[in-house]
Amino acid sequence: MKILLDECVTKKLKRFITNHQCFTVSDMKWDGLRNGNLMSKSVENDFDLLLTIDKNLQYQQNIGKYNLIVVVFNTGSSKIEVMELFLENFKSQIDSFEKRKAYLIQK
C-alpha cells in the first residue's frame, strides 16, 4: 500500500510504518497544499491512503469523490510518542480499509 503522511503528522512516524511505501508531504514537495488539492494529487500519484490528524478533513471534503482511503488518528498532537500509541490499531485494521471512506483510529 502506498501511504502519504499529511503535513500535520510528524515525519518521524514514517520509520514506524513498515511493509508499505510511506511518503511525507515534504517528500513529495507538496507542502502547503490545501486538503482538496492534496487529495487530488494523492490520487493522481497512485497513493492508496492519506494519514492525518485533521479530524475536520472528513467533514470538509467529499471523501467519496476521491479514490483514496483517509485515516484520521484521533489526537490533537503530532508528537511521535503520541502517534505511536495509534499504530497497533492502525496496523491491525489497514487491510480492511476501503477506498472512498474515512476511518477514525483510537488508541
Tell me about this structure.
- The protein is α/β, with parallel strands linked by helices and 107 residues long.
- It has three helices and five strands, in the order ββαβαβαβ.
- Strands 2-1-3-4-5 form a five-stranded parallel β-sheet.
- The longest helix is centred in the C-terminal third of the chain and has 14 residues, at 80-93.
- The chain is globular.
Give the key terms.
107 residues, alpha/beta, 5-stranded parallel beta sheet, 5 strands
Biggest sheet, strands in spatial order? 2-1-3-4-5
Order of helices and strands: EEHEHEHE
Quick one: biggest sheet?
5 strands, parallel
Q: Please state the average pLDDT score.
A: 96
The share of residues in helices is: 25-40%
Structural shape: globular
Sequence stretches where pLDDT stays below 50 over 5 or more residues: none
Counting copies of identical and different chains, the oligomeric state is single chain
Distance between the termini: 22 Å
Number of H/I helices: 3
Give the amount of beta strand, in percent.
15-25%
Number of strands: 5
Overall SS class? alpha/beta
For the CA atoms, what is the radius of gyration?
12 Å
